[in-house]
Amino acid sequence: MSEEKKETASATSSSSAGGNKMVLLLTIVNTVVCLAVVGLLFVSLQKEKKAQRIEDIVAEEPAADEGSGGHGAPAGGHGAPAGGHGAPAGGHGAEAKGKKLAGFGKMVTLDQFTVNLTTPGSTTPKYVRVNISLEVPSVEVEGELSQRMPQVRNAIIDLFNSKRPSDVVSEEGRQYLKEEIRSALNGFMVSGKVKGVFFTNFALSG
After folding, report:
1. Do 111 and 192 fall within a single domain?
2. What is the mean pLDDT of residues 93-122?
3. Do 111 and 196 belong to one domain?
4. Whole-prediction pTM value?
5. Among 23-37, 42-56, 109-123, 174-188, the range of highest mean pLDDT
6. Which residues contact 5 (CB under 8 A, 6 or more apart)?
7. Could you tell me whether strands 196-205 and 126-136 are parallel, antiparallel, or unpaired per DSSP bridges?
8. What is the β-pairing status of strands 113-117 and 106-109?
9. What are the respective helix, strand and coil percentages of the chain, to the nearest 5?
10. Mean pLDDT (whole number) for 137-151
11. How many domains does the chain fold into?
């Protein structure tokens, strides 16, 4: 009976020792795996820090372009002074653009017009609804237009009243009417002249 107990105790001890070894082995494997993962993450972060981002490349390119005119030539390209062919920086294109913008006047928007057209031999009335903007060269002319607004509107209404529907239905007819309006307004303007007349909305009804 005592021998059976000894054998049972020995088997239990051997089983416990085997279990402890298995736990130790698993612990070591887990530790190695964790260290490997941490190492991979560290290496990956180092590579990302060293790699140049696209934003950095884009930011550096303009700086490089500003310092040179390309292929070792000074700014302006091929040994020419800035602007090219002795022209000041910006070139002829920038100068022309500046003149074009400088020549553009102020816009004065008038209240909408709803005006009857002349319809000889017809009992059906025809009218036009139009929005008009005037281009003027200065603030002084704009101020005079504001002071003369009743006179301005009267001149425009009189011109429309004298037109038949066929006179304003075509693009050519409307262009001619714009010139007539400009001439009529410039006939009484003192501080300056109206440079342009624009129809921003045009509807023929009736």
Report:
1. yes
2. 76
3. yes
4. 0.51
5. 174-188
6. none
7. antiparallel
8. unpaired
9. 55, 15, 30
10. 95
11. 2
